[in-house]
Design brief:
The structure holds 2 protein chains of 2 kinds.
Chain A lengths: L7 H20 L7 H12 L9 H4 L3 H23 L8 E3 L2 E7 L6 E5 L7 E2 L1 E2 L4 E6 L4 E9 L3 E3 L6 E5 L2 E8 L1 H6 L3
Antiparallel strand pairs in A: 1-2, 2-6, 3-4, 3-7, 5-6, 7-8, 7-10, 9-10
Chain B lengths: L2 H11 L3 H23 L2 H17 L10 H23 L10 H5 L1 H9 L3 H7 L3 H12 L4 H8 L3 H18 L7
Helix pairs in contact in B: 1-2, 2-3, 2-4, 2-7, 2-8, 3-4, 4-9, 8-10, 9-10
């Protein structure tokens, strides 16, 4: 069969598209860093048992990044343990008499912000902590709030520790429920 | 699909999520290139890549290991990209470069970015209407068959063929060719 796609102009057109897009992929490669972690993270939250814990060392391109992430995981585990001991089993957030501290581990981020209905969707910048952690403390009245993190002014990222998620405008938004008990008497 | 890929897919199917992480790492750039050709914007393409690996994981039990993995994955990516473009057009009509290119020139950030980088291929593809852009990217970059493109776009194979023919002709015109049909 005489396939017109094997003609010279067709081959040239194909080569033009493939080479051009491949070089643009090369330019944007840094954007894909850590994508595996994000995919697995989302899948593990979607799974019913939630028992999955990926091997971070196999997911990151460099040992340094893997180490930083591991330290972060250890730190978070420690904080959560303290949290559980404090009786706040139902909340993944750090609360205190002075408000809520939102925390996300994102070692590769240059900038992390938080935007939600409690900020009128205006981004509030998080402070960088050790071990790739970012955090911000906010005063919140009891209620239900939708929010997300913004990574590097660009990427809209749900909070892995949200109470639930909703899909709006084709994006996944994080939801937290703040009650009087957590707002008023919690401590970390 | 290599022997190693088959093992990774089997491991994933038996509940080993880490194996899926390795598959994601291996194929993410190919999926990103395809998504970039269709979506035009790297941030949108990034979303498509993430959604593709999540959807593919969820549909992995439907994957026939006798088939090739890459076309199966790219068919899913094509479908997600197409749906996302439709939703974007509905939600943010002014952001759709396919039919309102002048909006880009009004955005100073995009203008600066464009001046910094000259994305010839992406720009040429963006000039095509999405009904032509999607099949041509799936065919040439994704190397999908008409049947696979048909599945990704929910179009009959005959329509895919016609659109591809027109897409090639239009793209040649955009690139300054003679556009022989």
């Amino acid at each position: 069969m005489n396939d017109p796609e094997n003609s010279k102009p067709e081959k040239e057109l194909k080569e033009y598209i493939v080479k051009g897009l491949n070089s643009e992929v090369e330019e944007e490669k840094t954007r894909l860093r850590g994508l595996e972690g994000r995919v697995l993270s989302q899948l593990s939250y979607e799974s019913s048992d939630g028992a999955y814990m990926p091997s971070f060392f196999s997911l990151f391109p460099s040992p340094k990044l893997a180490l930083a992430t591991s330290l972060t995981a250890v730190l978070i585990a420690g904080l959560l343990t303290g949290f559980l001991i404090g009786g706040y089993v139902n909340t993944p957030f750090f609360s205190s008499t002075n408000g809520f501290t939102f925390v996300i581990a994102y070692p590769e981020a240059q900038r992390v912000e938080l935007a939600g209905d409690f900020t009128n969707w205006q981004p509030r910048q998080l402070k960088k902590r050790s071990g790739g952690l970012w955090s911000i403390k906010l005063d919140l009245e009891p209620g239900r709030y939708e929010y997300n993190f913004i990574i590097n002014d660009d990427r809209w990222v749900p909070d892995p520790r949200a109470n639930e998620y909703v899909r709006s405008y084709d994006k996944l938004s994080s939801v937290i429920y703040v009650d009087d008990r957590r707002q008023g008497s919690g401590s970390v | 699909m290599t022997e190693e890929d088959i093992k990774l897919v089997r491991r994933t199917q038996s509940g080993d999520l880490e194996a899926w992480g390795k598959i994601t790492r291996k194929y993410k750039e190919k999926v990103f290139g395809l998504a970039l050709g269709i979506m035009g914007e790297p941030a949108d393409a990034d979303d498509v890549v993430q959604d593709t690996f999540i959807r593919a994981y969820e549909k992995l039990d439907q994957f026939d290991q006798e088939r090739k993995f890459t076309p199966w994955l790219l068919t899913i990516a094509g479908n997600i990209a197409r749906n996302k473009l439709r939703r974007n057009k509905f939600m943010n009509p002014l952001d759709n470069p396919g039919w309102l290119k002048s909006s880009e020139s009004r955005d100073p950030a995009k203008k600066v970015n464009q001046e910094k980088k000259n994305h010839l291929v992406r720009d040429s593809l963006a000039e095509l209407d999405e009904k032509y852009r999607i099949p041509i990217v799936l065919r040439y970059y994704g190397e999908l068959t008409y049947k696979e493109i048909s599945k990704a776009t929910d179009l009959p194979a005959g329509t895919v063929k016609t659109r591809l023919h027109r897409a090639k002709s239009k793209l040649k015109n955009i690139l300054g060719g003679d556009g022989n049909e």
